[in-house]
Amino acid sequence: MESRSTYKVLMWLVIRTFSKEDIGTYTCISTNSLGKAEGTLRLYGKYYSPL
């Protein structure tokens, strides 16, 4: 029987109150004894000022 070491990488970004300053590129980097995981996302959007 073959032994495999598997794991999942889960990253998320929560923006509770969106503003135009939130638009841009975000990078998440995690390092531990198993190695390094890295993810990058680009947040696009149109900002509409509340009335």
Write a brief structural summary.
This is Immunoglobulin I-set domain-containing protein. The protein has 51 residues and is an all-beta fold.
Verbal overview:
It is built from no helices and two strands. By secondary structure, it is an all-beta fold. It has a two-stranded antiparallel ribbon with strand order 1-2. It starts with 23 loop residues before the first strand and ends in an 8-residue tail after the last strand. 0% of the residues are buried. It comes from Rhynocoris fuscipes.
Number of strands: 2
H/I helix tally: 0
Largest sheet: 2 strands, antiparallel
- Radius of gyration (Å): 17 Å
What would the average pLDDT be, to the nearest integer?
A: 82
List low-pLDDT spans: none
Write the layout of secondary structure elements.
Elements: E1 24-32, E2 35-43
Antiparallel strand pairs: 1-2
What descriptive keywords fit this protein?
single chain, 51 residues, mainly beta, two-stranded antiparallel ribbon, 35% strand, Ig-like_dom_sf, Ig-like_fold, Immunoglobulin I-set domain-containing protein
